[in-house]
Design a protein that fits this description.
Length: about 500
């Protein structure tokens, strides 16, 4: 939406002035930002290895001094220091190799609301420079999007203009996550890999039109030949925000209890959760009661996780994957249209790597996208650096007459990209760009864009835009994914 008010024009001018005046030290070169990006396979192979080799490891990230009130809970209101622990924050890492000689892949999940690519690269630096994992071709680190974990981004500090990220905690998080990744490689064993998919019923809720989401729960399971290792990878789309805004306890939210249920009922099992396309906002069915705190949020969180775990445990139609792993990633520059986020970067509340154009009037955020295939084109994972609106995956957009901007959405949506039989999004992967919104329904407040939530002609609230990098983000990311998939053929 175009904003024409005097206030909006003044804010745009102020944004350009801030970008122009920002010291050079606030910016990063492309070489620096992409130094530790492992781009994977130049071309996707069609040969198989003899077997899969996989390993798992985890690290506890919860600070020992959590009760002293120095760590802020991220995801709800600012200035909410944690005073206790309901369950621990973890980094859980899986190493996967198909033994074709092309190298291994790491997928790691961190219990956090989001992690900037700058911090992702700090972890990558430790792993890569350790030399402990030879022939590593791809290293991907995702946030589970827990709204009850320690602030890893900086947006939930004591004041809106003060960073809530504790640097000593972040140094420890990076070190321990790297340690889990290296240990996953050392814990590897040979075996077989399987997958299964099921539709869930009545578990999710879309807080914004169109009412659409990926209801699939996908499980990828590795079983070692000697039965010593059983690794369960789960993908499901839902905000991990079920403890509600009044919580004072650190928690990984519902994924913690899903994992406990899976591991409790499976011998020698280690489980890891990767969130999906959760923009919109996709959350649990009773989320409105959670928002109003009219239910026991702790009980609901634990119950929701347990239900998901029981669904995983009930699956009995696993299909075997041939030993083949293809992956490709590429850097991408995202236009920082949201001047509030650029201001937050200027104030060092955020720490994303950014660059400005030659005229010094626009800022761009260094990020990345990726695509990973398992088996003979059986599984296709889109590695997306933020909270993707599901319609950008499945094509179920608002119609021209129902969209806020009165136009048709025109995208090559992700479900039409690649040749895999079953596809899904791994969200908040290698970055957190906030909500990734289709441009036909990207609507800003006319007077205070990116500050106040806009209300369109239908009376619909557009809160998500205030937490988005801008209307061009979705197209930039989807075009980048299409490019790497076509180049890998």
């Amino acid at each position: 939406m175009k904003t024409d008010s005097i206030t909006a024009r003044m804010l745009r001018i102020l944004s350009k002035a801030i970008i122009f005046a920002m010291p050079k030290r606030n910016f990063t070169t492309a070489e620096e930002a992409n130094k530790y990006l492992l781009t994977g396979d130049e071309k996707f192979k069609i040969k198989n290895g003899d077997c899969f080799t996989c390993g798992f490891a985890k690290s506890v990230l919860t600070p020992e001094d959590i009760e002293n009130g120095k760590y802020f809970i991220a995801g709800y209101d600012s200035n909410n220091p944690a005073t206790g622990v309901l369950d621990d924050m973890f980094a859980r890492a899986v190493y996967i190799d198909d033994n074709t000689g092309s190298g291994g892949v790491v997928m790691c999940a961190v219990d956090a609301v989001g992690i900037s690519r700058k911090d992702i690269n700090r972890i990558r630096k430790i792993v890569i420079e350790s030399g402990e994992i030879p022939l590593l071709k791809s290293l991907n680190i995702c946030a589970t999007h827990s709204h009850s974990a320690v602030d890893t981004q900086g947006l939930w500090g004591e004041k809106i203009y003060k960073c809530g990220r504790d640097e000593k905690f972040m140094e420890r998080l990076c070190r321990l996550t790297a340690q889990a990744i290296i240990s996953a490689y050392k814990n590897r064993a040979d075996g077989k890999m399987f997958y299964s998919v099921t539709k869930t019923d009545g578990l999710q809720f879309d807080c914004r039109t169109p009412d659409t989401f990926d209801s699939n729960l996908t499980v990828i399971r590795f079983k070692s030949f000697d039965e010593s290792k059983n690794i369960c990878i789960v993908n499901f789309a839902s905000h991990a925000e079920l403890l509600g805004s009044k919580t004072k306890s650190i928690s990984a939210d519902f994924p913690a209890y899903m994992i406990k249920e899976i591991e409790r009922n499976n011998k020698n099992c280690d489980a890891v959760f990767f969130n999906g396309a959760i923009g919109g906002m996709i959350s649990a069915k009773e989320i409105k009661k959670v928002y109003r705190n009219t239910i026991d949020c702790e009980q609901y969180t634990q119950q929701f996780g347990k239900i998901l775990g029981e669904i995983v445990n009930s699956l009995d139609d696993e299909k075997e994957l041939v030993p083949r792993v293809n992956v490709k990633s590429a850097p991408v520059n995202i236009k920082g249209a949201n001047f509030v986020l650029i201001l937050a970067r200027f104030l060092k509340v955020l720490n994303n790597d950014i660059v400005r154009n030659k005229k010094r009037t626009e800022a761009y955020i260094f990020s990345e996208v990726g695509y990973l295939e398992l088996g003979d084109k059986d599984i296709g994972m889109f590695l997306i650096p933020g909270e993707l609106f599901p319609e950008l995956f499945n094509g179920e957009f608002l119609s021209e007459k129902d969209a806020a901007n009165g136009v048709k959405a025109k995208y090559n949506v992700l479900c039409r990209q690649g040749d895999a039989k079953h596809k899904f999004v791994v969200g908040l992967c290698n970055d957190e760009l906030g909500y990734i919104i289709p441009d036909n329904d990207f609507y800003l407040d006319a007077k205070m864009p990116y500050i106040n939530s806009g209300n369109d002609k239908f009376g619909r609230n557009h809160y998500e835009e205030t937490n988005s990098t801008g209307p061009e983000t979705a197209r930039t990311l989807l075009d980048a994914v299409e490019k790497i998939i076509l180049s890998a053929k």
